[in-house]
Design goal:
16 strands, five-stranded antiparallel beta sheet, alpha+beta
């Protein structure tokens, strides 16, 4: 792109925005067109929760606003044309209406039936040619969430012996004049589903049930093969996590912006390179141990990324600021000059192992950790110097229902010895975090700022456990990544042992010290 092309692009961006109808009209147009939230969201490249926000008070911006306006204009024009056609048909003389036999009959194509639309945004699609229903095997004219199904219990019944044959594929369904067309919301076909035919993520009572039924359905599909079911569930963990997220966001106060503008510092510099954000990953080993020989316990921190979902996440588009003090009501990334760290002999540096001095871009959890350590309670360092920031209004509970659903499912799986569910849940939260940046595997949520913040929160949580161990008289030997902490001393009086997310478990034990240096670092 030339300099002038860049200028032209910038001028286009500040031009008049596409006009959008009122929120209630947007929803009315979609529902009249019998399109689900999932269908429209997929076409626009956003999540259903984002579309819900646009239909209830929020407005998109930029290129996505233009696309949304184009869609609504097209729906309005198409629906207006269909209304005119229906009016002309109703005005035609009765004698010109086709009669199929001596008894008058009304032939109604499937495309003109009112399929309805439930609040969950189920993906209901009309079929050009009927396909076998996954529940009863008879021809069905619509596909629900990817599966051909009947929409009413009356239609979804096995063909009785001697009953008339189903209409041939491609033919419309005939209704006698005594049978009025259905205009109310259809019954959920999943009420009659059994075994492998039941599509996961349908007709459940809550987020945890989504996980349970997904596991049960996949095990049934693989005839109880635990390894095959686990592999299948892990493979689809990303889209299932996004569906779970949408379920937990129903009725939420805040809507998520799936693809907001982001600053260049959050974009990869090269195809295989990294952006400019420093996550402060711990990678520290104590240089000198206390005199003597010691038993070192390597502790494993449970559910590190799951716990890190509770962090201050920016709700909207990041806004640039300079020369301002830290605002705890906002969250984002900050260019800071970190303070000197004088406790390297006993505790890792809170910003991780960094070779180059000077300013660097850090995340909200790292900045808050430094500010906390510089406060009157700890007084371990000077406050960091903040040069500029990209932030937005934030909340710590944006993903809380999502986190609780995963935590509850994980706890139940551990209690019941359910390895399939445990591996599935672990894949859901770990892949959810790792693919919300620039990833080809998750096109619904593009928030590299969230990805960095959640990761940094996991690192900060580990650092705080190291501080707790140090304050309680344990000697911290090593801190690595999100979940590895090596200590000397009676750690059970400091940390609860177990597999819950608030507990730790033993990963390894080894001896180290001046009298047995050859064993130092075993078990790493």
């Amino acid at each position: 792109m030339s300099d002038f092309d860049a200028i032209d692009s910038l001028l286009d961006a500040v031009g008049p925005q596409a006009e959008l109808p009122p929120c209630h009209v947007r929803r009315e147009l979609r529902e009249r067109a019998r399109l689900s939230k999932a269908q429209v969201a997929r076409a626009l490249g956003v999540s259903p929760s984002t579309l819900s926000g646009w239909e209830s008070g929020r407005d998109p911006a930029g290129e996505i606003r233009t696309k949304y306006a184009y869609l609504l204009d097209g729906l309005n024009a198409k629906l207006a044309t269909e209304t005119e056609t229906e009016t002309e048909t109703e005005a035609a003389p009765a004698a010109e209406q086709p009669v199929t036999s001596g008894t008058a009959a009304t032939v109604t194509p499937l495309s003109s039936l009112d399929l309805g639309q439930d609040e969950e945004g189920d993906d209901v699609e009309l079929l050009v040619a009927p396909e076998p229903c996954v529940l009863c095997g008879r021809p069905a004219g619509q596909r629900v969430a990817g599966f051909a199904q009947h929409l009413t219990p009356a239609d979804c019944q096995p063909t009785a012996t001697g009953a008339s044959a189903a209409p041939p594929a491609g033919q419309p369904t005939a209704h006698t004049s005594k049978a009025p067309l259905r205009t109310t919301r259809p019954a959920r076909a999943t009420e009659h589903s059994k075994g492998p035919a039941r599509h996961v993520f349908q007709e459940t009572s809550g987020p945890v049930d989504l996980i349970r039924e997904a596991v049960q359905g996949t095990l049934a599909e693989h005839q109880g093969d635990v390894d095959a079911a686990t592999a299948a569930l892990v493979k689809r963990a990303i889209p299932d996590a996004m569906r779970l997220l949408d379920e937990t966001r129903k009725g939420a106060r805040y809507d998520m912006i799936a693809h907001p503008w982001i600053p260049d510092i959050l974009k990869k510099q090269t195809a295989r390179g990294a952006d400019q954000i420093w996550e402060a990953r711990p990678k520290w080993t104590r240089h000198e141990l206390p005199p003597g020989r010691h038993q070192v316990t390597a502790l494993d921190i449970n559910g590190a990324y799951l716990s890190a979902l509770k962090t201050h996440l920016p709700l909207g588009q990041l806004e640039h600021s300079t020369g301002l003090a830290h605002d705890r009501r906002r969250s984002g990334v900050h260019l800071i000059t970190p303070p000197e760290w004088e406790h390297e002999a006993v505790l890792p540096n809170p910003i991780g192992q960094r070779d180059e001095p000077g300013p660097l871009w850090v995340t909200e959890p790292t900045l808050r950790l430094l500010l906390r350590l510089s406060g009157p309670k700890h007084q371990l360092c000077e406050p960091p110097q903040i040069h500029e920031s990209y932030t937005s209004g934030a909340t710590e509970n944006l993903l809380e229902k999502f986190r609780i659903a995963l935590k509850d499912a994980r706890d139940t799986a551990i209690e019941q010895g359910d390895r399939v569910t445990l591996e599935y849940v672990k894949a859901m939260y770990s892949k959810f975090v790792s693919t919300m940046g620039e990833s080809n595997y998750n096109r619904e949520l593009y928030r590299p700022d969230w990805m960095h913040l959640i990761r940094s929160q996991a690192f900060a949580n580990l650092w705080l456990k190291a501080l707790k161990a140090h304050d309680e008289g344990l000697a911290v030997v090593r801190a690595m990544g999100t979940d590895e902490l090596h200590v000397i001393g009676d750690w059970r009086r400091v940390f609860a042992e177990g597999r819950a997310v608030t507990e730790v478990k033993v990963k390894d034990t080894y001896t180290a010290g001046t009298d047995d240096a050859e064993h130092e670092g075993e078990g790493e």
